[in-house]
Amino acid sequence: MEIRDYLAIGSLVVAALAVIVQPFTALIVAKNSRQIAVRQIISPMRQAWIDRLRDRMAELLSEISEFCEKRDGGMSVKRLLLLKWQIELMLNMTETEHQNLVSLLDDVIHLSHGQDGPGQFSAALDRTVAACRSILKIEWERVKSGDI
User: Fold this and answer.
1) pTM for the full predicted model
2) CA 49, chain centre distance (Å)
3) What is the pLDDT of residues 6-65, one digit of tens each?
4) Please, are residues 132 and 101 in contact by the beta-carbon 8 Å criterion?
5) pLDDT in tens, 97-126
């Protein structure tokens, strides 16, 4: 065999490898590009969700505190329930932390209507804020890491 024959065989081997390897390379590149695109779409959506949850929680806790001071019922009760339901519908009830937050919200709302004393209400409010902060931190870490 001459050098020309080796070059021809080498060219055929390279061409065959290119035909076999190229689709796998293209598949990997496409998959990575799709994952990056999905992250670029979902991360801002998750951040907006975090912001809305934080806003709704702050508004609800503010309304509860005002309701406790005034004890005037009516529109305040309606507003409390609206905010509570908005928050609950934003949460994923398959996650334990989210279930816990809803339970704590129920406790705080119940205590805000009762005569159990400000100490119990204040403690329940603190537990609710801590639970919400924990959820917000977890979600922020997901956004930061690009975890979908």
Assistant:
1) 0.71
2) 7
3) 787 888 888 877 778 787 777 777 777 777 777 778 888 889 999 999 999 999 999 888
4) yes
5) 999 999 999 999 888 877 666 678 889 999
In whole angstroms, how far apart are CA 43 and each of 36, 50, 136, 144?
10, 10, 14, 8
Considering the four listed CATH numbers 1.50.10, 1.20.120, 3.30.2250, 2.60.120, the one that applies to the domain covering 45-145 is: 1.20.120
Map out the domains of the chain as residue ranges: 45-145
* Spatial separation of the C-alpha atoms in residues 122 and 128, rounded to whole Å: 10
> Do the beta carbons of residue 56 and residue 135 sit within 8 Å?
no
